[in-house]
Amino acid sequence: MLHLNSLTDLILPTALRVLKPWFKRSASNTFSPVSLFTTSCGGSMAKTKFEYVRKFETEDTCLRNCWIVVRLDGRNFHKFAEDHKFKKPNDDRALHLMTRCAQAVMEGLEDIVVAYGQSDEYSFVFKKESNWFKRRASKFMTHVASHFSSSYVFYWKDYFHDQELLYPPGFDGRVILYPSDENLRDYLSWRQADCHVNNLYNTVFWNLVLKGGLTNTQAEERLRGTLSSDKNEILFSEFSINYNNEPLMYRKGTVLVWTKEVETRTKNAKGLVEEKGNDTVVKKSVKKATPLHCDLIGDKFWEEHPDILMGH
Prior knowledge:
It contains ten helices and nine strands.
């Protein structure tokens, strides 16, 4: 019986003679194995004559010494919320699901120092000196968007027990660079102010519709040109709602910060070990992305979390 190597030695020369005319079409060598494939030194991936197309790729390296912010927004989420019967004006299930997805992203990329979310959006702040993805903006944006979107589908049933996911959600993303700490704080303040404005409007609007009996168009007309004080007055006088007593998650959004927690396990691992019977108890300090519902515009939060602006 012929061994495989012997069989190869018999077939290979014949195959090369048969295929040679196809590869070497003319004396000018316009198409040949040599012209098609050239191998670089050191046994790295083979290069081809088509590799020149990489020159069309644009350079998108983020400027150094800048905070890198990736913001995601739900695509066509008004329809998505309607199709999936979200509660109005706020659905705790949807808000908690968004935060769970943000935690998954944050815990997968420890260069994120803080995240902020409200409604169908989330912003992730990468430390200034981050070198993830060689600081390529497209990599930051696509990784965060894809991880967040897949997490939304993955964790859906944990929050919407009785509601089937009818179709996958979509999130668009953008990358913004902020050169100073003040710029970054102003950005997060802007998003939180947006949360307040939108939530106050939605709270009044849906109370007018669901409790006041107005149509959507009538509610829009009623609120046209009103100030924050007017909206608060409508809530209090007509629905006995003090807006300041609404949950902080609705009014302030959600901030994700790093905290350290001690995990106790009964298996071998590095850490502080204590003997309990036949079990080995291991205590290990781990970082967790912890949600807070607090004010970002004032100084208190930043004084309590100085490590954020230090990039830790």
